[in-house]
Amino acid sequence: MTSNSYSSMTGAISEYANLRTLPAIFSVVFVATSLYQFGGITEITLTWFSNYSLTTEHAALAGIAVYAAAFMSSETKRFESYETWEQIALGAVPVVTLGYQYVSEISTFINDLGGTSPIGAQAAFVVTLFGWFVAVR
């Protein structure tokens, strides 16, 4: 095997690995930021960045950023190409995520859904997770 074909093969393997690694990293970031935003986990601290503790605002923005990146990298990039139920799921992610963070009526509605139980926040997390699965499939 010549060195040219070896480097070509390792380059192809590397590209393949990157294609699988990035969506996995995006998925972990999206799930973690959504869990944090809706109260599923209490604190995310990045010790490598001077013990930075994630804020709910940064969680919402990071979640939307990876959601947009995942949607733009999907094979079906045109919103019109999705079925109606898929469009609803895709549109619900930014509405719920950003609405919960920036629109007090939405956060109040979600938080009051279960009374003293966290069922509203759990439902919001499930809605965003379902929208994520639609975007990345």
Strand coverage percent: under 5%
Low-confidence stretches: none
What integer is the average pLDDT? 86
Q: Major sheet: size, sense and barrel closure?
A: 2 strands, antiparallel
Quick one: how many beta strands?
2
The helical percent reads over 70%
Describe this structure in words.
This protein has 137 residues and is mostly helical. It is 72% helix and 3% strand. The chain is built from five helices and two strands; from the N terminus they run H-E-E-H-H-H-H. The protein has helices at residues 3-37, 56-73, 84-102, 104-112, 119-136; strands spanning 45-46, 52-53. It has a two-stranded antiparallel ribbon. A hairpin with a 5-residue loop joins strand 1 (45-46) and strand 2 (52-53). Helix 1 runs antiparallel to helix 5 (119-136), helix 2 (56-73) runs antiparallel to helix 3 and helix 3 packs across helix 5 (119-136). It is flat. The model has no long low-confidence stretch (mean pLDDT 86).
Give the arrangement of secondary structure elements.
Blueprint: H1 3-37, E1 45-46, E2 52-53, H2 56-73, H3 84-102, H4 104-112, H5 119-136
Antiparallel strand pairs: 1-2
Helix pairs in contact: 1-2, 1-5, 2-3, 3-4, 3-5, 4-5
List keywords for this structure.
single chain; 137 residues; mainly alpha; two-stranded antiparallel ribbon; 5 helices; 2 strands; 3% strand
